[in-house]
Amino acid sequence: MLDFHWLKVLVETATGWAGLGIIAVYSFLIAFVLPLPSEVVLAAPLQLGVGYWGELSAIILVSGLGKAAGSVFAFHLGQEAKESGPIISFLRRSRFDVVEWSENKTVEIARKYGYVGLAMALCVPGFPDTLSIYAFSVLEEDYVKFALATFVGSAGRLVLWAAGAEAILAVI
Q1: How many CB atoms neighbour CB 151 within 10 A?
Q2: Which residues cross the membrane (predicted)?
């Protein structure tokens, strides 16, 4: 398995306006290929000179946009996979039947709640984004709604994470 720890460290030490670019690229990549936590972007010590809330807002906005862009790329791959019988057949025969799991869990949420369900799934801190994104990408067909739902879910997760951290720090 490939080790992407160096990328996580790069994000955790990103500073300046270039640091926002690093956050955008990282968020783009975790949407469709990297098994890394999205919340790590909140640790970036950007030092932009806009104050804590300005930096936090910039991180959330840039990360959400990066993940939405990566999600649209994953969405496109999902649309292509939908058309490819061999890919679905391979997934069904694999040791861990991704298609069956998706149909039983994530697809149920997608069908019941649609794009709102995708946004809610992406709001769950610590839950892998890639699985939800690919599961929804095979079912849905609207690129704009998909991008909007992934942005809202991604930004919502970071807001929840940051609010939780603020609440804990206020108690300490």
Answers
A1: 22
A2: 14-36, 113-136, 148-171
Residue 92 and residue 100 in contact, taking contact as beta carbons nearer than 8 Å: yes
**Phi/psi of residue 57, nearest 5 degrees:** -65, -40
Q: Is the pTM of this model over 0.85?
A: no
Q: Amino acid letter at 10?
A: L
C-alpha closest to that of 60 among 168, 125, 154: 154
Q: In this predicted model, what pLDDT tens digit does every residue of 37-57 receive, in sequence order?
A: 889 999 999 999 999 999 999
Q: What is the phi/psi pair of residue 127, to 5°?
A: -80, 135
Report H helices in 13-50. 16-32
51 Ramachandran zone, left/alpha/beta (phi>0; psi -120 to 50): left
Distance CA(30)–CA(130), nearest Å, equals 7
